[in-house]
Amino acid sequence: MNIAHHPDDATLASYAASCVELNFSQVLDMHIQHCCHCQQRINQAEQLGAALLNQMPEATIDPAVKANLFKLLDQPLDEKKSRAITKPDQQFERLPKYITNWEHTDPDQLPWKRMGPGVRYIPLASTRGKQFLLRIAPGTCLPAHGHQGNELTLVLSGSYSDEIGRFTPGCVADLDDRIDHQPIADRSEDCICLVASDAPLKFHGWAPRLFQSFFQI
Amino acid sequence: MLISRPKGSTSEAECAQLMVRITTERDREAFTRIYDLFAGKLKSFLLSRGASNAIADELLQAILLQVWEKPHLYNPCSGSLSTWLYRISRNRYIDHLRKNNLSDRHSPAEFVPDEPTVCSDDTPSSEDQQCIRDAIKRLPSRQAQVLYMSFYQGKTHSEIADACEMPLGSVKSSLRLAFEKLRTTMGEGS
Questions:
Q1: DSSP letter string, B84-106
Q2: How many Å apart are CA A123 and CA A133, to the nearest integer?
Q3: Residue B1: CB atoms within 10 Å
Q4: Residue B145's CB: how many other CB atoms inside 10 A?
Q5: Which site among A23, A28, A52 would you substitute to test the B interface, given the most B Cβ atoms closer than 10 Å to its Cβ?
Q6: Which of A120, A142, B66, B88 could anchor a disulfide with A135, C-beta 3.0 to 4.6 Å?
Q7: Taking CB atoms and an 8 Å cutoff, what residues of chain B touch A14?
Q8: ipTM summary value
Q9: Cβ A11–B172 below 8 Å, yes or no?
């Protein structure tokens, strides 16, 4: 896959340091698994993290905790597992399979909701911040907008262009409060993106601002 | 302030040897040595990410049991033991968030680690890691601050922007520049 646009190195560094919110890390997971460039960056960030780990002050560990660990070393693996996990696994919030398995998904079978002319969306569960699929009809121009926080947009299929460049499948737009843009879907097919954000968009026109209050984006 | 490692301290090569002893001989003494070198630092890392004391202890136990049960998964050719442990800890913490449907991090504000410490005689190190630490000392203060808040305090870009009253874009620029300089130090400039 030829990927022209990657997450900012700052975002990759924070991902490697496990300090990005879950909705962002899920978008990053999907990009990174196909991107050697970002895998290399993360490997470097992990080396940096390790160098800094070695400088961390040592937290106090209760001697009973240490004793318990050493007691577990001699126990059979199954018993260790049952003792080591004190909380039962729960159904955890993950991306639906139709997204993680996108190449086998028929987008027309999904429950799209209409957002505006040529624009549909599917809201996804996210405790903090927003996460949704966005489907833009060929040639549709989104309203010009800026960002009040972070936004990561991963193109799943189709393509769009804006002031930054042309975004094709696998590309990530890593946007923040410095960036105003007006994406236009290319004319060949619907452009479908996975979007995560932590603050509402900043629309410049009154009409999109009105829609924004309905769709909470 | 950092100081050079004195001769005789634990090197990454020695750490790799300890792992070989665990793999081939199930050597508890070698495991104890790994525990003494890393357990306190790994717990610090988990606390700085927002884990409670009890959860940090639980995750630490799982991380170290993985070292004991699957030492063969560590390949010294693909990186230092510190990097491997860092990666395991990071992944364990993320798994913990996801499995418990916490969905997002707790605020790391309750645990704020001290400033980086002077390397002790026992601090595992390699030339690369020492170069990185030297390079961090040369970073402009803003970049060093953002790097510190990200890697030590586990703060997101937005949390750093709020804490420092900086625009979000400036936080990312500072972190990107810091990372770029440190990558150059690691021998990969672009």
A1: HHHHHHHHHHHHHHHHTT--SPP
A2: 7
A3: 7
A4: 18
A5: A52
A6: A120
A7: 150, 156-157, 175
A8: 0.83
A9: yes
